[in-house]
Amino acid sequence: MAEAEAKVMSGQPMVDPMPTRVRFGSVKVRKHPMTLGDNPGGIAKGPPITMDWEHVESEHFSTVDGFLEKYPSTKGTNILRLSGQQRREIVSGLHTDEDIAQAEQEIKMIRLKRQESADEEEEGSIKSLIRKKQAEQKKKKEASSRAFGLLGSFSLGRRRRAPPDTAS
Fold this sequence. Notes:
This protein is mainly alpha-helical.
């Protein structure tokens, strides 16, 4: 333990004595058809789409390398981004135009409600900040009034002496 602490203090990199390894024996790919969805997030135009629950086919690869040969990485690309027209084409053979229009209308309503909720939350936050600031100002004013009231009860001028008692 002292050796590890010494390495940290000296700025030397620490090497984990038990390296962690992950291995995959095989890869199974299931393909799902696309269908009309209900998630309003992320799409600007067109109907929402999602994967169907039932898969239509499976592929089995004995190694990850075999999988990567057939399905090269799409990381960093927009290959998975679909236009509104592409979305419509995907679901048009599976759903009626009325169903598609209804799904688009529903996501518009959900987005509108989310925006209204966010606006209300922001408005509530602003009102809360205003109330807090007003309360702080009121406390300062009250503290100032109390301090002035205390000072006002003391005479700031010279103290008058009582006239000497001459009766004695």
